[in-house]
Amino acid sequence: MQDARDIVCALAGEAGFETFEDTSEGVKGYVQQELFDRQILDVLLGGVPIDGAKVSYEVAEAEDRDWNEQWEQEGFDPIVVRGAEIDGEAPVIVIHDGRHLPAELSKSPNHLEIEIDAHLAFGTGNHETTRMMVATLLSLQLHGKRVLDCGTGTGILAIAALKLGASEAVGYDIDEWSATNATHNAVINQVDQHFTSLLGDVSVLDKVKGTFDVVMANINRNILLADMPMMCKKLAPGGVLLLSGFYTADTEVLTEKAKELGLTVKKQCQEADWACLTLCSD
Fold this sequence. Notes:
seven-stranded mixed sheet, 27% strand
C-alpha cells in the first residue's frame, strides 16, 4: 500500500499540505490552517487512480504540547552525508544534536560538523530531501559565494554552505520559530556573523539587495512552482538553483517550469520517492 500512500501525499500536497508522517494507521499530514481548503481536498482525494481505493480522513488541530521539551529529551542520532570522492577522499558532513556524536566520527579526516538544535523546525538531515541537498552542496565550489536559503527551517542548508566556504547566507521562513531557530543554530555553529535570517514568504526578497550565486529551496512542489520566478530573479547569471522537497513524480512539471524561466537541468538525483534537482541559469 506504499504506492497508495505516496499518491495520497502527492494529491494532498496540491491542497496545501506541507509535511507528511507515516503511521500504523495511515498517513498524517500537516497544513497551515489558513491554507486548508477541505472542498479542494475532497475533490483531489476522490480521484485516487487506484482501482478499488477509497480514502477517508479526519481533521484535527495539531496537538498543543511542548515539542521543544520532547526534542530536548530525545534528540537524534548523528547523520553522515558523504560527497563524491575527490583524489580518493570523500568529503563528509556530520550532522548531530551536540550530544550523540560518536568519537570515531569526530576523529575521521576530511569532515565538517554541523550541530542542530531543532526547535520545531524542519531540517536535521533525517529526511531524504535534506540529505540530498547537503550532498549536492558538497559537490559545489562555494568559496566566496553568496547563497540564499528559501524556507530555511533550522538553517541547516545555509549553515552547511557557510561551513563549505560561502561568504554570506540569507535565509527566510514563514514561521517565526523557524527564523529564530535558524539564527540560534548559526550561533551554535559560529557562522552567525555571515548569516541573516528573515521572517516572511518569498516576497521578503523584494527588500534584499543584490543577487545570489546559489539559491536553495527544500519546499513542497506547489510553493516551488509559485516562487520559482522570484528565486530566478534573485539568481546571479551563471548561478545554481537547488530544489528538493518534492516527489519524483513531480520532477517533470518542475523541470518544465525551470525551462520556461531559462534554466537548464545540470543534475538530478533520487532517494526513495524523493527527488533533488540542480538547475543552472544561462
